[in-house]
Structure formats: structure tokens, C-alpha cells
Amino acid sequence: MASLQFLAPSSSPIQSNRIMVRATSSSSTSPNAVNQTMVAPELSRLEPRVEEREGGYWVLKEKYREKINPQEKIKIEKEPMKFATEGGIHDLAKIPFEELEKSKMTKDDIDVRLKWLGLFHRRKNHYGRFMMRLKLPNGVTTSEQTRYLASVIRRYGKDGCADVTTRQNWQIRGVELPHVPEIMEGLNQVGLTSLQSGMDNVRNPVGNPLAGIDPLEIVDTRPYNDQLSRFITGNFKGNLAFTNLPRKWNVCVVGSHDLFEHPHINDLAYMPATKNGRFGFNLLVGGFFSPKRCAEAIPLDAWVSEEDLIPVCKAILEAYRDLGTRGNRQKTRMMWLIDELGIEGFRSEVVKRMPEQELERSSNEELVQKQWERRELIGVHAQKQPGYSFVGLHIPVGRLQADDMDELARIADEYGSGELRLTVEQNIIIPNVENLRVEALLKEPLLRDRFSPTPPLLMKGLVACTGNQFCGQAIIETKARALKVTEEVDRLVAVTKPVRMHWTGCPNTCAQVQVADIGFMGCMTRDENGKPCEGADVFLGGRIGSDSHLGDIYKKAVPCKDLVPLVVDILIEHFGAVPREREEDGGD
């Protein structure tokens, strides 16, 4: 395993105004070998648009500030990371909220800049309260950390709760600004951070939730994701080289044939592959979701050894940071830059930023098996360690209260190793349970009454974003509605295998409806009387795994009250569901 190294930002000049590039594979065995001539972009387009200033902050150059979006202007007016690096959060937390609202600068502080500290003000639906997003590489957490988070949300009563996210992460809700410095210090004491978890930063690194315990794993992804998280956050103190990206950026390391990590929707995905007897990764780049466009990641035609895990991440981030556009926010994700430069043009910019300005072509020795039936994570399953099992628990739409978290921490200590694993399906795994103790674990009231290891099939794959209970961007309520619709549908039809249903409250698609078997995207529509009502665009046909595919619109603007019969019809027609027999009312 490579040791973690922090690398200084780099850039390389281009020698001519317009150059001809011949892209030729360095390996005759590469499946992605190319041999074509193309015209590189103008030199001016390849000039970095940002520059490093005093203190290590990266700032957009003056000449590139025309037609930039409002968020870029806010970053220029005041550096967000100073709340962390220079202790600004302590001063801000002391100011009464009503005073902060009187000036645009401090109003932008609480609504935008605090997102660099993982703090999201819920102005529209939870005024004066913040959601705090953490960094939890590979979704691994401890009982101690879980208890601490429970103690934070408990102080806020009915306003406090926690959610498991679709990036194997925790989000806690109800946080009040005066408590933030204390909370952040507490996070540090238990080995957690919320730094660089929002806005134009790198999101939580995702990996195999069964890493290290999976009998069929390709590689343990935990050390790699820990390296990535420490590099990106500067050992949890802030890495200023990557706090001014054009937009958010997602990364994952794949360690399973099941592709639990969803590599095709990440900006950078490390796909395990060997080359000439060395272990490493082929790279996919550019996957993302947005209201206006969704794109699957594409091959960079590059392979790196495990020792170059961090250098290539750094090079790709620098290329995106330096060259990405900062105008229309709907066109600032990394794939738009790849489209503009072409995949070879983008690759060449990555190469320039590698330590030796070299990057091997991809390997044809991929380790992920293409034909693989995705395994179940919920329930009791054998680990690679003899005599031990992991127990996957269904957390309905990912929502937990403080008492739930305390109980999970107790159970992890009593039956396992004090560890919990979060999944991208918003569920939780308890690893390292001795087989002799499984039966006792399954009798725990929390598992019988709240978080079942044997939920109904339609509940197993249910995912929902925050919805308009807390999120100001959500158009509809999602979590409670997802549960209610699914329960009603389950009473009407029976399925023979899980059907993944995802609910998202708005086109930002935080719940990733396009990868679901059936997806619901919130919208406003009209009922049969022409009155405005909450509705959903219904998606169908998303797939995950080696044959991943983004779903398509099946029916637009369906009133929410009409979703149950529509879902019943879809399940019967497309998923082999059968109507449940109903007993007639009346006496004997």
C-alpha cells in the first residue's frame, strides 16, 4: 500500500498556440487503444483560470470574471474556508441571527459560505437551523462516533434527526449556529470532520460497504478511501488547493464485482485492474446528475498503480479546477469540460499535471466480472472470517432519531466490533457478529420493531431524499410519501424480487432516480379539476452494475395521489408482480 503523500499544486506550460496531437496507446494490449490525429484546443483555452494567492487560497483570475455565476461572485467577495482555517466560525457563531440577516455579506455567509464547513442553512423550511454533512470515507463509522452524533441531535428535540445519505454518509439536522464551534470540536475528538463536504468541493469517497469482510471482494477499498479523504481535506484541517472547484465532484473506489459503489455516476471511479503483474486501477471519469443533464462516466483510457492513487486524483482535480468553466451552474460539472476538450484533450491535461508527466494507457486485465448477479446486503450473511457474519438492517428511507443511533451503537458494541457500515441505499450493516450471537441479535427490539433485517421486498430497495420537510429546493415531500405509497402498493401486489424505487424531491436528483428500477422526481402538476398539486415525473429502467443504464421518463407530471395505481400497473407489466388475493368482507 502506498503511503499518503500531500503533493503541491502543479501546472505545465504548453509550447505552441495550436498543436497537433497524435494519441497512441503505450500498450498493444489496451482495449481502448487509439491512433488518431486531432486538433488540440487554443492555447488561451488551456491557460489556468485560477491562481494561488497569499495564504494558499485559489482565486479566479480577474480576466475570467465576466459572466460568472452568483456562487462564484460570493467566493470572490470572501474566502469561505477562512471560517475554518482562520477561526472565523467562532466569531460568526457569536452574532445573533437577526444581526446576520441585516447584511448581504453575512447573509451569504450563513446561506452559502458555511457549506464549505458542511453546514447547510435550511432557510425555507427550517429557518435558523442547519443540516451538517460529515465526511465518512467508505461509510465506516464507530459506536463512539454514532453516540456523539446522537448526543448532538438529541439537544434539538423534535428538530433533530439524522439521515443516511446515498454517498454512505451521515447528515445531522436541527443544528443551531451558536453550537457549531463546540460541535466541530466534538467531531474532531471522535475522528470526524464536516470540512469540504458541501458546495464546490469533493464529496464523501464511496467504497465497498463490505470492504475487508467480503468473501468475494476484489480489494479492500477502506485504505484507499481513507487516503483520498485525508488528501482532499488536508488531514481534516482543510486542503485549500481543492476548495475552489467549479462545482461539486464525486469519487469512488470499486472493490466488488457487484459495483455497490455505483462507479458510473462518479466524476472519478477507480476500477480494479492488473497490468504486467501489478495491481492498480483503470479510470472512469465524468459521471454526474443534474437538472438539465445526466451522464455516465466514460473511460479515460488510463491505468494507474495503487501508488499513484493520490497523484492521479490530484492531477484530475487540478485540471478541472484550472480549466473548468464557471458560468451557467448547469454546465460546470467536469463532464462539460471533457466534452469541450475531448477525452484525449482532457487526458493530456491530466498527464501534464502528473508528477512525471506520464500516464499509462488502460489495462485489458480488468478484475470486475461483467456477468455478476448483484448480491443482497440486507439480512444475515457469512463474512470471509470463519465463524462471523454481517447483518444488514433496513433503515426506512435512511431516517434515524437519537435513540435509534444510541441503540445501534450499543448493539454494535455488544454483538459486533463496535463498527457500523453505511450503504448508498441508505441502510446500515453491523459487521463482525459471531455466528453464535446472531440469533440473540435478531431478537433485539430495535431489529424487530424498527430496523428489520427481513423487510418486505418492495421496502428493501426504497431510497428517498430529504424532501421539502427540510430542503428548500425540494418541490414535494418524499420520505413519508415514499413509505406510504410503497406500503399501499405492497398491499395490492406481490413481487418475487426486490424492485429499487427512488424518490427525489426536485430535479437535482439527490436520490439518484435515474439509476432506479422505478424513479419518482418531484414536480408541481394539476389534478383532474385543474387545481395545482404535488406530483412526480416517473422514470423507468435504470440499472446498476456492469450493465448500468440510466432510466428514461415513463410518464410526466403524475399527481401524487394517482401514483399507487400507476406503480401497481408498472410492477405487473414490467416486474412480474401479481395481484394479492383479497378476502371479501362479511361474515361466515
UniProtKB/TrEMBL annotation:
Residues 199-356, 462-575 form the Nitrite/sulphite reductase 4Fe-4S domain. Residues 121-189, 381-445 form the Nitrite/Sulfite reductase ferredoxin-like domain. GO terms for molecular function: 4 iron, 4 sulfur cluster binding; ferredoxin-nitrite reductase activity; heme binding; metal ion binding. It is an enzyme of class 1 (oxidoreductase). Its EC number is 1.7.7.1. Its cofactor is [4Fe-4S] cluster; siroheme. Pathway: Nitrogen metabolism; nitrate reduction (assimilation). Keywords: 4Fe-4S, Heme, Iron, Iron-sulfur, Metal-binding, Nitrate assimilation, Oxidoreductase. It catalyses: 6 oxidized [2Fe-2S]-[ferredoxin] + NH4(+) + 2 H2O = nitrite + 6 reduced [2Fe-2S]-[ferredoxin] + 8 H(+). The keyword Metal-binding applies. One of its GO terms (biological process) is nitrate assimilation. Belongs to the nitrite and sulfite reductase 4Fe-4S domain family. This is Ferredoxin--nitrite reductase, chloroplastic. It comes from Thalictrum thalictroides (Rue-anemone).
